[in-house]
Specification:
The chain contains four helices and three strands; from the N terminus they run αβββααα. The chain is elongated and about 100 Å long.
Amino acid sequence: MSTRARQRLPVSVASSIAAVIATTLLASAARAQPIFRCGDSYSQSPCANARILDVAAPPSIAQRSEARDVAAREKLLALEMVRDRREREQAVRPATAGSLGPTLPAAAASAPAHAKKHVRAKKRAAADDPGRDFIATVPRAKK
């Protein structure tokens, strides 16, 4: 076979294949290391009262069955929680704005208006009324 008949892989493809092979070898070497359980944490180095975990063993039929049962219970619980949340959200009605101003006390709203008062007194009373908006005025110049 001539050299022209042989086709070489591009450098990027060859380096990608080499990277995949190296990663596979490193992953299999890393899997061979024991994993220790030290209380609530996991480590590659042993500690006092460490338990070695068997990570290579596949789950048993009983473990798979138990995992399916747990998943089914959690799914039902999640659906129940969603239903409860939606019921609570439907029961709550948002407050609607009746007025943008401050609310009047019940006594002030039902008090009869006095028909005859001096004009100045009426203006001062209106300025002190908490239910009305503040209106700024410029004082008149003295003559």
